[in-house]
Design brief:
The protein is an alpha/beta fold and about 230 residues long. It is about 45% helix and about 15% strand. Bound molecules: uracil (URA).
Length: about 230
């Protein structure tokens, strides 16, 4: 798909989010729907959870305190914000920075799935437990103890997914501490790289080191993975 077609399709998709104003309270009360931004031709898609106060005010993802840290570490690893694409699962701000609810994730899942289809990234980097949970919705573990993944089906290949029940079940099924900092092949042409959320990195030196280390692994191995696909 050409760049201009991707941009037009995304514009249309983001316009369609308006219908959620009547369905979810966070969409009736937010200042802005926070759309994805960046290079639509990038092969790397970063997916966060939901906008915070600064993102809601400015209408852009990852511009607040945790966002600034994320971008700083991204740049330390020689990636530029304008070279990647960044979006969130939920596009409206949950009040008091609470986690998005299962209902909110489920309703926004249709938008995210279409974003992934339009952008067609080779590598999806999930930021935090909620984003990871979304992409693990279809996961099959080879071994429940080691959490070695056999297969994660492509989102578009499974129709009846991301309903509230299946999401709920899935969120109980994994720990981010088992999965972060590694590449997982999730379909023929796509890898998943789970990371902690940058707000986790703001909570203490050890967390920051862990977040930095994941980025370093990502930056070191990304080309090898990219060339494999
Ligand atoms: N946290 C997120 O998950 N997304 C943002 O856009 C900002 C903070």
């Amino acid at each position: 798909m050409s760049k201009i077609v991707k941009i037009k399709k995304l514009e249309k998709l983001y316009g369609e989010m308006e219908f959620l104003r009547g369905k979810l309270e966070i969409c009736a009360s937010c200042k802005n729907f926070v759309k994805g931004t960046g290079d639509v031709d990038s092969k790397i898609l970063f997916v966060g959870e939901a906008p915070g106060r600064d993102e809601d005010l400015q209408g852009e993802p990852f511009v607040g305190r945790s966002g600034k840290l994320f971008i700083k570490i991204l740049e330390e690893n020689n990636f530029l914000r304008k070279e990647i694409f960044i979006t969130n699962i939920v596009k409206c701000r949950p009040p008091e920075n609470r986690d998005p609810s299962i209902e909110e994730i489920s309703l926004f899942s249709k938008i995210l799935k279409q974003e992934v289809e339009i952008l067609n990234p080779k590598i999806i980097v999930t930021l935090g437990r909620i984003s990871l949970g979304f992409f693990l919705e279809n996961v099959k573990f080879k071994n429940q103890n080691t959490k070695e993944i056999v297969e994660i089906m492509d989102l578009k290949n499974k129709k009846d997914n991301h309903n509230e029940l299946s999401l709920q079940k899935n969120f109980l099924n994994f720990k981010i501490s088992d999965l972060h900092g590694k590449f997982f092949k999730i379909s023929k042409n796509r890898f998943l790289f789970p990371m902690y959320h940058p707000s986790f990195a703001l909570r203490g030196r050890k967390n920051l080191e862990s977040f930095r280390k994941d980025f370093e692994i990502f930056s070191k191995d990304f080309l090898k993975i990219y060339e494999k696909i």
